[in-house]
Design the sequence.
């Protein structure tokens, strides 16, 4: 155990002396945060169209007329899920307003008893809310005039709901952390390839030091570095760009360890095909660049072209970024948090299996 501890300390000292290693594993992700933070730290500007949730519980001609009237408004992008789904989408900032049209009885309406239509909107967006409530009221009044020949049979009741505002930098911070963990796992294997290329590992085989101990020391240091990266990146995002990390830290750090272990295993598997440090770098870069830009860590999944979705669904970085966004910001998972963690675990086991099977000391 004492020999293992000394080996870990020696490896840490070697890493600290290598300024390029420190740059790529710590400074580079921080630079990314500042670049993206200064560009996208503000809340995005107003949309070109308004996302409106419409829940029509009435199947009568009057209810269908209300739906058709909303569909005819070009600046409204309608979503017609259940009331619970649409209110949940509003609470997460995915809707500007939600209109709930109840069951309407024509005889009751003609008798002069009005029906109440609920309009839910974000309490923090008062200016937009006034426009939305006024526009929706006008649409309903027009439907009344056309369907019944009278107005004011449908009353609107605006209701506020508190919505969390997420900025681009909030979305990007977990993505930058995911990128840093990927680079730590993939590029962290270069040191081992260099030692193998220079026959140093073969010489260590003639010493009392077990070569496997050196390998486990490398893995342990990478996992510790992953935790350091997490703390540094979150600290920079919190202090300079006011990103609020609201999740459970045990869940966050557990996901960081799982992600780092996955990419460390994948890195050792990839370099098992390389005999020189140069060929290892080329092989890692061939995998790293598509993974970085096709995983959705820097932009929402829905912006990805359809023909690239299958590739994105096969990339482990996709699920690491999604899981970190969920645990750090409490954003709903795009794929389901159980699926995120399960796929990362599968990647870890498969990469570890093939890394061990193909592993070469010289």
Sequence:
């Amino acid at each position: 155990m004492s020999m293992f501890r000394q080996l870990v300390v020696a490896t840490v000292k070697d890493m600290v002396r290598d300024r390029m290693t420190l740059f790529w594993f710590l400074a580079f992700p921080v630079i990314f945060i500042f670049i993206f933070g200064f560009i996208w730290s503000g809340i995005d500007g107003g949309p070109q169209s308004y996302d409106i949730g419409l829940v029509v519980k009435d199947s009568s001609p009057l209810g269908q007329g209300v739906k058709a009237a909303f569909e005819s408004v070009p600046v409204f992008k309608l979503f017609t899920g259940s009331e619970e789904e649409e209110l949940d989408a509003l609470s997460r900032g995915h809707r500007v307003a939600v209109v709930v049209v109840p069951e309407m009885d024509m005889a009751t309406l003609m008798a002069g008893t009005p029906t109440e239509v609920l309009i839910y909107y974000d309490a923090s967006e008062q200016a937009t809310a006034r426009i939305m409530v006024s526009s929706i009221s006008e649409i309903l009044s027009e439907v009344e005039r056309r369907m019944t020949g009278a107005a004011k049979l449908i009353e609107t009741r605006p209701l506020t709901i508190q919505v969390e505002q997420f900025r681009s930098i909030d979305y990007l911070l977990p993505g930058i952390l995911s990128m840093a963990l990927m680079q730590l796992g993939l590029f962290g294997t270069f040191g081992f390839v260099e030692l193998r290329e220079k026959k140093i590992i073969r010489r260590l085989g003639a010493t009392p030091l077990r070569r496997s101990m050196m390998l486990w020391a490398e893995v342990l240091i990478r996992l510790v570095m992953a935790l350091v990266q997490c703390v540094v990146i979150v600290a920079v995002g919190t202090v300079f760009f006011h990103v609020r990390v609201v999740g459970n830290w045990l869940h966050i750090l557990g996901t960081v360890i799982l992600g780092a272990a996955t990419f460390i295993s994948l890195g050792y598997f990839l370099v098992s095909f390389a005999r020189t440090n140069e060929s290892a770098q080329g092989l890692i870069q061939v995998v790293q660049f598509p993974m970085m830009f096709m995983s959705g860590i820097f932009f929402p999944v829905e912006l990805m072209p359809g023909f690239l979705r299958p590739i994105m669904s096969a990339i482990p970085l996709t699920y690491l970024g999604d899981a970190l966004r969920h645990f750090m910001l409490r954003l709903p998972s795009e794929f389901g948090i159980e699926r995120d963690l399960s796929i990362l675990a599968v990647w870890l086991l498969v990469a570890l299996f093939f890394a061990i099977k193909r592993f070469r000391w010289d």
Q: What stands out?
A: The chain has two domains: 2-42+183-357, 50-148. Residues 12 and 257 are 19 Å apart (CA to CA). Confidence is low (pLDDT under 50) at residues 43-47. The domain at 50-148 is CATH 3.40.1710.10 (abc type-2 transporter like fold).
